[in-house]
Structures are given as C-alpha cells and as structure tokens.
Design brief:
CATH architecture of the largest domain in chain A: 3-Layer(aba) Sandwich
Structural class of chain B: mainly alpha
Radius of gyration of chain A: 21 Å
Distance between the termini of chain B: 75 Å
Order of helices and strands of chain A: HEEEEHEHEHEEEHEHEHEEHH
Oligomer: heterodimer
Number of helices of chain B: 12
Strand order of the largest sheet of chain A: 5-1-6-13-7
CATH class of the largest domain in chain A: Alpha Beta
Helix content of chain A: 25-40%
Helix content of chain B: over 70%
Number of strands of chain B: 0
Strand content of chain B: under 5%
CATH superfamily of chain B: MetI-like
Structural class of chain A: alpha/beta
Number of strands of chain A: 13
Largest sheet of chain B: none
C-alpha cells in the first residue's frame, strides 16, 4: 500500500512538473511567437485534421488545424516575422483567453460588434460574407425569397453569435434556444428539431457538402437579414499597436486573394472529401 | 434524432470512417481523460482521507480548550468545503476557478482540470471516508485507546486502513464517475475526449457519428475499469488478516520484551 502510494505521489509530482515546464517554455517564447486562438471546429474557417499539410498548423501532439483563419493567421505571422502558434479553444473561452493573455489574437470568424468592443479591440474585417439560411431540401421554406416568410417557423442559430441575434428580425418567428456550435445547430435542422438555421455562406456550404439533403437559401439585400457579415481579428482591448500592425498586413491581402483563399479552404475541408 | 440515425443506413460506416480518420485525435482525448480522472481521483482520495479522517476524530473531554476551538473551526471550514463542492455543478466550478486563478498560477487548462477534479472528488471522498470510518466497529477504537494510542494515532493506524477497505467500492465508483464527468472540462478547452469529439464533429459536420464513437469509447473505458476494480476488490477481500503470523521484526521483539525505550 505504502509503495503504491509512493508511486502515485511520484507520478503526480512528475506530471505536475512536466506541465509546469511546458507553461514556462510558452512564456519564454512569447516574444518570438504569435499565438492565435480559434475553435478549430468551424469549417471552412477553421477545422481539425490528423494529417499534416503545407496549410496546417499543429495544435496538439496529433491534431493539425487548417482553414481560412489559419491561412490569414499564417500571413500575419509571416509579416511579423514570428512563429505562428494556434490554440484550440471553445467559443465561450476565446474572449477570456485574450483578456488573460493566453493568446495574442483571436482569428476565429468573429464579427466586430459594439457589445464585444466592450471587452476586446477589433481589426479591419478580413472576410466579408453573406447571411443565409439552411433548410432541408423538401422543406416548404426551400424556395422563399424573403426572410419574413419564415413567420412561425422554428429557427435556430449558434449561441453568442450574430447569426442568432438576427433571427429576431423575422416577425413572429419561433426563435429556438441557440446551440453551442454551428455543427450542432445543423443537427437541429437535420433532426427536425428546427425548420431552418441561420448562418453564413462559407460555413453553410460546408454543411451542404456533408449532407446532400440540405439546401442553402440566399436572399437579396432588401429582403435578407440586416446585419454586418464581416469577420475581424480580435486582440486584447486597447492594444492599438497590434491592431495597426494587423490592419496594415490585412490591407495587402486583396479581396480577390481572400475569395481565392476561402474557395481553396472550402475545397480542402474534411467534409468535401 | 433516432429517426435520422435509422434512416441513414450509412451511419455505422460513417462512424467507422470517422474513428479511423481521427484515431490520433480520439487517442489523445482518451489519454487526457484518463490522466485527469486518475490523478484527480488519487489526489481527491488523499484530500478526502485528511479532511474526512480529521473530521471524524472526536476531541477528548480532557483536551485543552484551544484544541477544542481549533477542532470547531476545522469542522466549520471542512463542512463549507464539502457542501460547496458537492452542491454546485463541476462545469461552473471549472469555468470559475480556471479563469479566477489563471493570473495567479498561469496554469494550462489541463492542470486546472486536474485541480478542479481533485478538489471536487476530495469533497465526495471526505464523505465516503467518513461513512467508511463509521462502519468500523467502535470496539476497535476502544481497544486502540486502551493500548494507549492517541486519537490521531488510532484514526490513522487502526481505523482508516479498515475504513478504506470498506469504502473501496465507493472509491472505485468515484473513479468511474470522474472518467465520465471530466467531460464537462471541455468548457475550459481541456483536450479531453469530449473536447476532441466536438472538434471532430465540427470539422466533419458529422456530429451524431462523432458522438456515437465517443460514447462507445467511454463505455469501453468504464467497462474495463470496473472489471479491474472488481478484481482488485476481490483481492483485498481475500487477504485474511486474522491468521496469526510470526513477527520477527526487532522492534516488535523489543516491544514484547518491554524494552521499547
């Protein structure tokens, strides 16, 4: 019993030490690295795979992260002459991670909003998208042209995102409790829990590639959702120096380049295989 | 949900595909889940032994009033600790403690996860140990005390070893609970099996399949664990301590001869 306890204690102390040293190295490297946080589960912006390619960044001993956000992060890090480190953090934890200096920047498909500006600072947008809805192919809503036609429909979005907030622009809508991730919200539609899902075009395209029973409904500017659909890089509040630096790098990525990067990311994402 | 699953004949094939394609990610998740559950349970047990053991000690009537006051204060603090961690969800404890102490310890989510599981398990273990202590016959305590042992000596060398043996099934159960409940730590981005499952589901847009694979993995782990625990339990119960044994230890001989000092 005593031996067993000694072994266990030794193990605990050792594991404690090894994690402590890990922590130290990240701190020491802080000056030479650019640490970016993202979910790594929001394809095609960011996703996880187990194979290494020229596009991926390692996030753990076996996981590699790729996607549009990763490519933008790579360009920024390269311009800064820093090594890119990507950390996979759940959506709720991203802003706290910025505030606690766990990450230098958040490049995770986040839209600049007044509310979020209370806690972080945003760069210029690095992608402009479009708000769409995703419905089953045989749904009565598959051919609508105005969001107001969704009256009485059960509509779902991802929690703490703009795509959830805009649902209330539909009059008389049955706004369901938001889901914790975009993929989880898709599941609500495929399982019949919801009639429609509000999301943005690149992610919605990924969803329909993986499930051929889903279709995307797009709206023109007049009849669609009134919202900002751009995504920006977030940094710690009032770090204007970093915001300026990132903005000047983003300026050099033309909108053609951005579209091209997104198309390529859409083709590489795991659901497309 | 069930309808979607059964109407999709490819479901099982998709599950197998996902498991094969993302095997390294799942394995990493399993590794962290096991490390957190095992170290968390062990540290929790040690915590529980001290907290529960000290709580169960009764202060002697002739003890000085300062000892009585210290014991009273200790009882209040340990009760607050136990009731707080047993009475609040571990998920919210994780969110609160991780961020609240991040500036102090500068810890990784994994270390924070072990800490949270440990203090949480410690609260449950204290109660398990306390009930284990209560299951030890009072005659044992009286015998130890009449041999001149102090109440602390009695607790740690007579009562506790038997209490642990009696409480072993409950302690093992706590380990299995930790394997499953550590999944709530994915909220602070600990790369455990649950976090990895969410990532894989999000990357492939195949949430039901990824969840099903994770369910099966959890089930296999807990089944193997309970099998091992049952073997250990059988072994503990087979050690027959009532057979007289010759004790040739020099200190024991001296003790018997009355030459202890």
């Amino acid at each position: 019993m005593k031996k067993l306890l000694t072994v266990l204690l030794a193990g605990i102390i050792l594991s404690g030490c090894s994690s402590a040293t890990n922590q130290e190295t990240t701190n020491n490297e802080e000056s030479s690295t650019f640490t970016v946080g993202m979910e790594c589960n929001y394809a095609p912006y960011n996703w996880t795979q187990n194979t290494e390619t020229e596009f991926t960044v390692k996030t753990s001993s076996v996981d590699y992260c790729d996607g549009y956000d990763v490519q933008i992060a790579k360009k920024i890090a390269a311009e800064m002459n820093k090594e890119l480190v990507v950390k996979a953090i759940s959506w709720d934890g991203l802003i706290p991670a910025l505030q606690n200096d766990t990450i230098d920047a958040l490049i995770g498909g986040m839209t600049d909003t007044e509310e979020r500006r209370q806690s972080v600072s945003f760069s210029q947008p690095y992608y402009a998208s479009e708000m769409v809805i995703v419905v089953p192919k045989d749904s009565p809503y598959a051919n609508i042209t105005n969001i107001q036609e969704l009256t009485n429909a059960k509509v779902v979005g991802q929690a703490d995102t703009l795509y959830d907030e805009v649902i209330d622009q539909i009059e008389g809508v049955n706004h369901l409790t938001p889901q914790e991730s975009f993929t989880r919200a898709i599941l609500s539609v495929t399982s019949g829990e919801a009639d429609a899902l509000v999301g943005e075009l690149p992610a919605a395209k990924g969803a329909i590639t993986s499930d051929s029973n889903l279709v995307i409904v797009r709206f023109n500017e007049e009849n669609g959702f009134k919202a900002d659909t751009t995504v920006s890089v977030a940094v710690k509040k009032d770090n204007t120096e970093l915001v300026d630096q990132i903005n000047s790098i983003l300026e050099n990525i033309s909108s053609d380049d951005r579209t091209q990067l997104m198309v390529e990311a859409g083709e590489r994402q795991p659901a497309s295989e | 949900m069930l309808l979607t699953v059964s109407s999709n004949s490819n479901f099982i094939t998709n599950c197998i595909d996902i498991f094969i394609k993302y095997r390294p990610s799942f394995l990493l998740g399993i590794k962290y889940t096991l490390i957190i559950a095992l170290t968390g349970t062990c540290i929790g047990l040690i915590l529980g032994l001290f907290v529960g053991g000290l709580k169960a000690i009764k202060v002697e009537k002739q003890a000085s009033s300062s000892v009585k006051v210290i014991k009273k204060i200790y009882d209040v603090i340990s009760t607050i600790y136990i009731e707080f961690f047993r009475g609040t969800p571990m998920m919210i404890q994780a969110m609160f403690i991780y961020y609240a102490l991040l500036k102090v310890f500068n810890w990784t989510p994994e270390v924070a996860g072990i800490f949270i599981v440990s203090v949480n398990t410690g609260a449950y273990m204290s109660e398990i140990i306390r009930s284990g202590i209560q299951s030890v016959d009072n005659g044992q305590v009286e015998a130890a005390r009449s041999l001149g042992m102090s109440s602390i000596q009695t607790m740690f060398s007579v009562v506790l070893p038997q209490a642990i043996k009696n409480a072993f099934p409950a302690i093992g159960n706590e380990f299995i609970v930790n394997i499953k409940d550590s999944s709530v730590l994915s909220i602070i981005s600990v790369t455990d099996l649950m976090f990895q499952t969410k990532r894989i589901g999000g990357s492939t847009f195949k949430y039901p399949e990824a969840s099903f694979v994770a369910l099966m993995i959890y089930l296999v782990i807990t089944l193997i664990t309970s099998l091992i625990l049952r073997q250990v339990e059988a072994k503990i119960n087979h050690v027959n301590t009532s057979i007289p044994q010759s004790d040739t230890n020099i200190s024991s001989i001296n003790l018997a001869k009355g030459k202890d000092k």
